[in-house]
Amino acid sequence: MVPRFVDLTGPQVAALPADTVAVLPLGAIEQHGPHLPVSTDYVTATEAAEAAVRAVAEAGSAPVVLLPGLAYTKSDEHHWSAGTIWLSWDTLMRTLVDIGRSLSTSGITRLLFVNGHGGNSALGQVACREIRIRFGLRTFFAHLSVPADQGGRTSAENEFGMGVHAGHGETSLMLHLRPDLVHMELARRNVPEGLRDYEHIGFGKPVSFGWTSDDFGPDGHVGDPTAATAEHGKTIFEAAVGRLAEVIVEAHRFTTP
């Protein structure tokens, strides 16, 4: 059973154990090329968060509660495309901080964001500190896996570390979670190999750069989804869930010297 915040009464929320970890999935509604649905980041974040919360709750490893996922976030790198619904950076910042404030009045002391969209990363980390300063919550920001453009690894060698959006990994995840929404007949390789010519600037390199997804072509994806499989997606998903479950347990006991 998944302990859901929205299923509790006000008195039940107030009676949650001290140091309960509130888990908030952050997704996105944005174009994911011609082969994946605009809900991709929302689906992966909410599914992984729910599975991790269930695992922790059933094991009794830590008190935890699942918040409803936030679908609309910072997706302006895909602003050019139909299907993208994004919040401005200040709207999302205020939203996250307001959620932290509201949780603090309910007695929640620990908040873990589970992020499924790389474009939320920098702002989410700022929000974590702002919530900590203003309301005293212990705040944490976790990815399903570290995005490739932020130093993480991509799952296909021929993506050369550039499977940052709707590539092999994400497509495999969706083939595992929602194969009915995946259009593999439209998948094609789109890897900006010209970026390999730069030593310092690029995805996952020491110097980042501002980009929008149409910089890399009209289809909006960056990577190679053509060899994606549900089996690989299952492996990625189970690894992410296991890691997130461990993160929840650590967040419950985390303190600073």
From TrEMBL:
Q: Which residues cross the membrane?
A: none
Q: Which UniProt keywords apply?
A: Hydrolase, Metal-binding, Zinc
Give the organism's phylogenetic lineage.
Bacteria, Bacillati, Actinomycetota, Actinomycetes, Pseudonocardiales
Which residue stretches, if any, does this entry annotate as coiled coil?
none
Q: Which InterPro entries match?
A: Creatininase-like_sf (IPR024087), Creatininase/forma_Hydrolase (IPR003785)
Task: Name its species.
Answer: Pseudonocardia zijingensis
Q: Which domain of life is it from?
A: Bacteria
Tell me its cofactors: Zn(2+)
Work out whether the entry's keyword set contains Hydrolase.
Answer: yes
The UniProt family comment states: Belongs to the creatininase superfamily.
What protein am I looking at?
Creatininase family protein
Pfam families, per the entry: Creatininase
